[in-house]
Amino acid sequence: MSDTLEHRSAEPAELSADQLLDAYRRMRTIRAFEDRVHEEFATGDIPGFVHLYAGEEASAVGICMHLDDGDTIASTHRGHGHCIAKGVDPKPMMAEIFGRRTGTCHGKGGSMHIADLSKGMLGANGIVGAGAPLACGRALAAKLAGNGEVCVVFFGDGASNQGTTLEALNLASVWQLPVIFVAENNGYAETTASSWSVAADNIADRADGFGMPGVIVDGFDFFAVWEVAREAVTRARRGDGPTLMEVKLTRYYGHFEGDQQTYRGDEVERARRDFDCLKWFRTRVTTNGMLDAAALDTIDAEAAALIDDAVAEARSAPLPGREDLETDVYATY
Amino acid sequence: MARKISYRQAINEALVQEMERDENVIVLGEDNAGGEGAPGERDAWGGVLGVTKGLYERFPGRVLDTPISESAFVGAAIGAATAGKRPVVELMFIDFMGVCFDQIYNQAAKFRYMFGGNAITPVVIRTMYGAGLRAAAQHSQALYSVFTHIPGLKVVLPATPYDAKGLLIQAIRDNDPVIFCEHKALYDTVGDVPVESYAIPFGEASIVRSGGDVSIVALGRMVAVASEAATELAGAGVDAEVIDLRTTSPMDTDTVLESVEKTGRLVVVDEAPPRCNIATDVAALVASQGFEHLQAPVQMVTAPHTPVPFSAALEDLYIPDPSRVVAAVKLAMEKGS
Ligand SMILES: Cc1ncc(C[n+]2csc(CCOP(=O)(O)OP(=O)(O)O)c2C)c(N)n1
Ligand SMILES: [Mg+2]
Predict the structure, then answer these.
(1) In this structure, are strands B25-29 and B63-65 parallel, antiparallel, or unpaired?
(2) CATH 3.40.50.920 occupies which residues in chain B?
(3) What are the beta bridge partners of residue B240?
């Protein structure tokens, strides 16, 4: 019953010029944000564990372009890109990463727990595989309300082996929930190759066993992700149940900042050179004449300026203090 | 012969020595070697913080990387233990117990008793706990009290490199399931550790500093915090005894009670939140079995009843520090006769 499709790529002309600019801006903003966090981390001023999404932008944006404010996403430890794609303001995100009171979570969450419920971004997550069951619940609520909302859960190749994820896939299908399962297969879970840890040839192949469509998508190609996500989201909104998308891509940085990455081959250099999603997007929209390069250059400059401001504001923002330690609780002892 | 090595090296050395001694000892966990199936270096990480580095080369076939499937591989370690293996399985962060807890508390913990004494389950679950690395709410908890609550599990919290080695060797040789809790902020601490193999029995607290005025009972990373406070208190004329519980299950109740009998005052320092933790457990022990010796109410120094905050500014307030221990001791000294 499932169809594991070869990826199809939409024609840029299927999007309006405004949509194309919007998509490019979101992807560029993610890249600028992550490249900058990488640099700032190296100064020692960003605490904790930071997992960067650079290289994977086409996945988050290609999918979130189809979502409205009422739709929700559940994210992972590698969540900055999902946030920005879903419309979360990069400034309070940056402040959160720096542990400031002005952050999205007032400094209590950090990089691994950035959330903006007002934007339908349900939270980055420190527990691998935790998102999928929560997404089922969100989707169940939408189904009971009959409001046509959908929930997207992003998870990694590593998380695809977690019982929680596999149970949620089954549940979503049994209940015909409006969930889109997005397996972002970047080839590794920490140092472990997905070609080893995932016993099936493809994560999408597992969809068959859960009675839902499974689709493999080229994650460097925004238009391919956009096309497949359009179908999955439409299907979910129609009440026809979940879809499993496997988006194949590459992370440009280490598992987390500080990772020496000795386990890797040369895939990052090759990806940056030959398939980078931003370059590829630019080539496609400029060669077919939909957009001119100058418009994209402007977005590049604006994204860079936005991130400069975000860092400057985060660095000068106040830290939380003793009065914040025991708030957001129902009892203290 | 002893020399100075780190807590991390001490754990690694215990694993090496036990793997050499007994071929039934196997090691498994996520990225415990690293690079499985990858084009680059094998043994790339040796665990997320490098604790198991080098074992993969040294013990071919006995160090297994796993998919991210804690229920399956922690459960498999438990199953292998019932078949005579002595698996040391890593649950990377104690916070991840939620995804595999059934295998631990309903399965491993219960076999010995539930099967009428006919089963042994010699599994060690190594796991990293504690705050201080800005790792936020889901990677910083001090959840050892949860395991301590479960009959059938042994719970171990080494505070020094010496104890890390000796307690891990004991854990591997032990026939019951052991939750071996390593504080992530202790890995780089250095101390004297004998080269040769040695086992430290469970249920024997260590008196880190003897004193006559007040008993400070601590565990894990809080032992160093309590010791620092004791040094400061000595300058203020208070002679504190510092006790490191070392294992919370079994717990050395005698050493605690004898100390309180001598000092008449008790302060317990625990990194966990204040409800149903080791501090309340020790306080209850002394209240019920040593009440007549107490000259002042028991003081408990713990984390607040909140998740662990991310921001350094908040996390530093969250973790009990020496100044809070000193204040608690002063309170204990002021009150009563
Ligand atoms: C339940 C659980 N197990 C293990 C970890 C440690 N961990 C964090 S990220 C990660 C790898 C995740 O790989 P994948 O799902 O492929 O996502 P990616 O990092 O590649 O984006 C691991 C093992 C965790 N956070 N939670
Ligand atoms: Mg991955």
Answers:
(1) parallel
(2) 206-334
(3) B214
- Segments of chain A with pLDDT less than 50: 1-6
Spell out the residues 6+ positions from residue B271 whose beta carbon is closer than 8 angstroms to its own. Answer: B130, B131, B142, B220, B221, B222, B302, B303, B319, B320
To test the pocket of ligand 1, the residue of A128, A184, A188 to mutate (highest count of ligand atoms within 8 Å of its CB) is A128
Give me the architecture of the B206-334 domain, per CATH: 3-Layer(aba) Sandwich (3.40)
CB contact under 8 A, A320 and B99: no
Distance CA B118, CA B127 (A): 28
* pTM of the predicted protein model: 0.97
Answer whether A189 contacts ligand 1 (Cβ < 6 A): yes
Active site residue B149: no
Contact A163 B69 (CB under 8 A): yes
Contact between residue B177 and residue B206 where contact means Cβ atoms under 8 Å apart: no
Q: Which atom of ligand 1 lies nearest, measured to the CA of B138?
A: 25
Q: Which CATH architecture has domain A4-312?
A: 3-Layer(aba) Sandwich (3.40)
> pLDDT tens digit string along A23-71?
999 999 999 999 999 999 999 999 999 999 999 999 999 999 999 999 9
Q: In which element (H, E) is residue A193 found?
A: strand A192-193
Which tokens is B116 given?
């009428």
Q: Given this structure, which CATH class describes domain B2-194?
A: alpha beta
B101 SS3 class: helix
| Domain limits, chain A | 4-312
ipTM of the complex: 0.97
**In contact, A124 and A113? CB cutoff 8 Å:** yes
What b/e sequence results for A184-211 when a residue is b if at least 16 CB atoms lie within 10 Å of its CB, and e otherwise?
bbbbbbbbbbbeebbeeebbbbbbbebb
Residues of chain B with pLDDT under 70: 337
pLDDT of amino acid B337? 55
User: Under an 8 A CB cutoff, do B139 and A264 touch?
Assistant: no
Range(s) within chain B of domains with CATH label 3.40.50.970: 2-194
CA dist., res. A227 & res. A221, Å (int):
10
Specify whether the CB–CB gap between B310 and A107 falls below 8 A: yes
Angle at the Cα of A292 from the Cα atoms of A287 and A295, rounded to 5 degrees: 140
